[in-house]
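Exercise 7. Predict the joint structure of the components listed below.
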Amino acid sequence: MRLSDSIESFIKEMIGAAEDDGIELRRNELAEYFHCAPSQINYVLSTRFTPEHGYMIESRRGGGGCIRIIHVETSPTDHVDYLIRERVGTSLTEPEARLLLRQLTVSNTITAADASMIAAALSPQSLAVPIPEEMKSALRAKIMRNMLLTVIRRIQSEHRGTTALIIRERK
Amino acid sequence: MRLSDSIESFIKEMIGAAEDDGIELRRNELAEYFHCAPSQINYVLSTRFTPEHGYMIESRRGGGGCIRIIHVETSPTDHVDYLIRERVGTSLTEPEARLLLRQLTVSNTITAADASMIAAALSPQSLAVPIPEEMKSALRAKIMRNMLLTVIRRIQSEHRGTTALIIRERK
DNA sequence: AAAGTGTTTGACCTACTTTGACCTATATGG
DNA sequence: CCATATAGGTCAAAGTAGGTCAAACACTTT
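Solution:
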């Protein structure tokens, strides 16, 4: 079994044991425990604890710094997951984005408020930087995907009556 | 818990206990109480009790000197206008963005849901395109600006027709 | 064997905190 | 007036801790 897999299951066990599905860990401590480079922890986090996997990660540097991992369940057959795979993909033009948002709104998949937030993020004013159009399309796709995943997780957690905040006040 | 965090909550408790949301403290006394350098108090004040956090600070040196901290609530609209001008500008680093979102959330200027939407749009995963960091900062600023403007437009329209705003919420 | 994919490591970077040396402002008694 | 004690301010260095990136490595597929 690879190191990364051990670290992955170790973290998942920690999350399973925490009743609120959120944990805090010290990167250097964990690295020492597994006798590996600290950046190995980042590798595990970035490959196995992504938004697509249903994890939100925040961290703080400096004295008393830590990494917070929050897990939110997502049903894999979700409509939005399908849309992200089939409609967003890795490239999204502006008209495609607008069409998708309109469809998501009229089908009541997301609220008008959420749609306007996404539209604001993807608006030409927001993306007014001098980069080639195909890079903008890649950017649109990434932003759309992350925002849709965030929306759908919120909707699901509201259904379960719990709240998973990404932004929490530090204690 | 970090020293700074302890001092921060100590001061916030004092302010919470004072019915007019304003207190006076002696820097050296507080430093002695926490067994730290007096300048530590200044550090806490300058990182956690800034105008952006909604605090005004005055102080007097010399005999009988003291530090006065006053907590002021502002309307979300004014606050956001101010922040877009002063904090976002034309360039926004990732830590700046996260700090701003945290502050907007804890001050109840925007909801946690809106903050996570913006965080999703600005997350490193969203902006994972090969462009120079200063261009990313410009992008972050534009996206943040547009999304915040969208949020406050929605807040304003929700309040339009009703009493002329000013949401004052305590704690 | 070569190419591709995923993993591991280490050098270097950035963010946040703590401390202390030195500076400035105000009050007060001689 | 002004010397001195009192009290806050500033700044930079040191300390703590996480982030990034690219090179090296390992394992698979072709």
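Discussion. The first strand of chain A starts at residue 22 and ends at 25.
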